[in-house]
């Protein structure tokens, strides 16, 4: 069903199951691959929301950039600590 999609753009949307028409093995495998990528990305955004990153309330772009930078720093430090503890 991909008609006019350029080759450099990949479809990252899951295949849907319809009534009386189960997914093939290839479709299930593709959905699993897409889910792994999606989960890695969505967990970062969930952690950002945990740190209070739902709304940036600053006046001006410069303040927003600083707040986002500090939010990213806090996430990266937390992730680093988690990875070091898991390694030990």
How does this model look, in words?
This protein folds into two domains: 15-50, no CATH class; 55-88. The chain is mainly alpha-helical. It has two helices and no strands. The model has no long low-confidence stretch (mean pLDDT 87). The chain is extended, with a radius of gyration of 19 Å. It has helices at residues 25-50, 61-87. 60% of the residues lie in helices and 0% in strands.
Main beta sheet: none
Query: How many runs of DSSP E, i.e. beta strands?
Result: 0
Strand content: under 5%
SSE ordering = HH
Total discrete domains? 2
Average per-residue pLDDT, rounded, comes to 87
Overall spatial form: extended
Total of helices: 2
Portion of residues within helices: 55-70%
Oligomer: single chain
Distance between the termini: 48 Å
Helix/strand/pairing category = mainly alpha
Q: Low-confidence spans: pLDDT under 50, at least 5 residues? A: none
| Radius of gyration, taken over Cα atoms and rounded to an integer in Å | 19 Å
Blueprint (SSEs and pairs):
Blueprint: H1 25-50, H2 61-87
Compact summary:
This protein is mainly α and about 90 residues long.
């Amino acid at each position: 069903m991909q008609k006019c999609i350029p080759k450099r753009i990949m479809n990252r949307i899951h295949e849907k199951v319809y009534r009386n028409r189960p997914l093939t093995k290839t479709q299930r495998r593709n959905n699993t691959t897409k889910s792994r990528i999606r989960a890695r990305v969505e967990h970062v955004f969930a952690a950002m929301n945990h740190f209070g990153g739902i709304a940036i309330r600053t006046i001006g772009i410069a303040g927003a950039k600083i707040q986002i930078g500090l939010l990213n720093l806090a996430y990266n430090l937390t992730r680093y600590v988690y990875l070091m503890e898991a390694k030990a």
